[in-house]
Design a protein that fits this description.
By secondary structure, the chain is α+β, with helices and mostly antiparallel strands. The protein is about 30% helix and about 25% strand. Bound molecules: iron/sulfur cluster (SF4).
Length: about 475
Amino acid sequence: MKFCHGPREACGVFGVFGHKDAAKLTYFGLYALQHRGQESTGIVSSTGKSIYEHKGMGLVPEVFNETNLTGLYGHIAIGHVRYSTTGSSVAKNAQPFVVSHSGKTLAIAHNGNLTNARELRNDLEKKGSIFQTTMDSEIIVHLLARNIQKGLEEAMVQTVSQIQGAYSCVLMTKEKLIAFRDPNGFRPLCLGLLDEGYIVASETCALDLIEAQHIRDIDPGEILIIGEDELKSIKPFPERRKTFCIFEYIYFARPDSTIFGRNVYAVRKRLGKKMAQEYPIDADFAMPFPDSGNYAAIGFCQESGIPLEMGVIRNHYVGRTFIEPVQSMRDFEVKVKLNPVKEILNQKRVVIVEDSIVRATTSKMRIKTLREAGAWEIHMVISCPPLKHPCYYGIDFSTSGELIASDHSVEEIKNFIGLDSLCYLSLPGMLEATGLDQDSFCLACFNGRYPIQPKEGFSKLYLES
Ligand code: SF4
């Protein structure tokens, strides 16, 4: 039994160049990025002459130990934590993906989704490529392998000019580490420095853990090649509008990370403040469902003056249980993770501060347990507008059927969940809270305006995988 609420993250990537403890640093980097993917993980390393790899299903500390990490030799390493958005959740789809072609070995770790994956894959198969996995990330390696004889730099430029969609990647040859990010910049990717070595990570929280210094972000559209005597930045695309995924701020990224130039904690707090300004509510206290709503709840309470309480307590040690609960254990799935505190909730008017509603079934179960604990009134404020459209750029709500707001009004959702009132933050309110240029975000899951239209067959690829 797997316990999950809300959208799940896509993936996290990490890379090291020029450090004697490359694999171990990658392990810790992935450990810090675990929230971005919990299905599988892997590390590939290089001594400059030979490549070593270890991958498996499960969490980072479940897959790696001192023994297998010690066998990952070399001063270069890349790693990946995965939640599958394309490709099945099986061991062979664990990344980094490694391929040898024409005497060259390439390994890739990818966060995002290619929107022209089906088209490219069909084309490559016609030309004789044989795919080992169902991952769209493998397409990137095949494209690169086809052009590698022209030299790494030229092969990279040729490859990124063919792929479309969202990609924040680390790629490794025996001698080099390459970081590259799509020109829209959907997913974050940052560059750090530790001793004499370079570090690349999905989020800055991974740099903090290994005490690397955050130098800058990898720019949207940038290819950064890191070698023994080079740090070469190539920008093959003309400037285009950036469309950062605003959901990274709302839900995905860790609050201690700084992404797209802003600290996530601070943005979440401002989202909470905006909600308090837009929807003044009279209540005894406000509370989050920890942990995702915590920071917006702090902002909401500071702005509204309503006290903050923790009306439910989270069990941090919940993983997966394969033992079915006994029949008398009602609402087991909810309570095992979040248990209501009856003494706090009894006869109270409560405001729940939440980050988002996807299917609403978990919210419904949670509200039921709060009513049973004695809450008199339950209001809910959501720190983004209703999620109405699927995401094609690496987040797991890939069909609108998974989103309750796609075909239900706010009033209907309120009634379904069993709330006294339900308020969503407005789109302008959400954008203002980021503190960034309002034109720099992807908002497709809210307004249906896709910065890159998926090519025909894209959803088919999703459904098949
Ligand atoms: Fe992020 Fe939504 Fe755009 Fe997907 S559609 S990239 S979740 S903002």
